[in-house]
Amino acid sequence: MVSKNTVCLWYDGTALDAATFYARTFPDSAVRAVHATPGDFPDGKQGDVLTVEFTVMGIPCLGLNGGPAFKHDEAFSFQVATDDQEETDRLWNAIIDNGGQASACGWCKDKWGLSWQITPRALTDAITDPDREAAKRAFDAMMTMTKIDIAAIEAARRG
Q1: Which one, of 97, 12, 100, lies nearest residue 49 by Cα?
Q2: Which partner from 13, 21, 122, 159 sits 20 to 30 angstroms from 69, CA to CA?
Q3: First vs last C-alpha separation in the chain
Q4: Residues 6+ apart with CB under 8 A from 59
């Protein structure tokens, strides 16, 4: 059964591939159900995968194979709070090494065009530090990074 509130993500025939990648990459993620279309439609034929029910880190999602009309952009992203550099590297590298691309400040995009923020908790703590000078130093360091380097953020925070 679909959740009362579900994130619907539009794909061009690749919803199952994306959901399978997310399920094997992120904790508390799974492919829940795959539904075939009961009839032909403009971008597919009867029996093609139309929707995929899945979770990404506990968030219910529906992948819709709607065709090429709409593309993902940075206006929507999953923000993943990581606990250490090992987890940050593992998730970032999984996305990049699977056909994704790096962006700035901890953002990257998977091969389906969906944006991800791989954000260490240490970064969030640093840029929200009540010592605004320490926060600014950490923020300025972050602005020079693609994947976040926790040691460099902490060094900048300390001054």
Answers
A1: 12
A2: 21
A3: 52
A4: 7, 78
Give the residue numbers spanning the domain of 147. Answer: 77-158
* Cβ–Cβ under 8 Å, residues 65 and 44: yes
Strand order in the sheet with 107-109: 77-82, 115-120, 107-109, 101-102
- Tell whether 60 and 85 lie within a shared domain: no
The pLDDT > 70 percentage for the chain reads: 99
Per the domain annotation, does 127 fall within a domain?
Answer: yes
Amino acid identity for residue 139 in this structure: F
Nearest to 127 by CA among 97, 99, 106: 106
Mean pLDDT of all residues in 31-55: 94
pLDDT score at 1: 65
User: Distance between CA 65 and CA 45 in Å, rounded?
Assistant: 11
pLDDT for 71-117, tens place per residue? 999 999 999 999 999 999 999 999 999 999 999 999 999 999 999 99
Q: Check the CA dihedral 82-83-87-92 and report its sign.
A: positive
81 and 61 within one domain: no
- Does position 22 have pLDDT exceeding 90, yes or no? yes
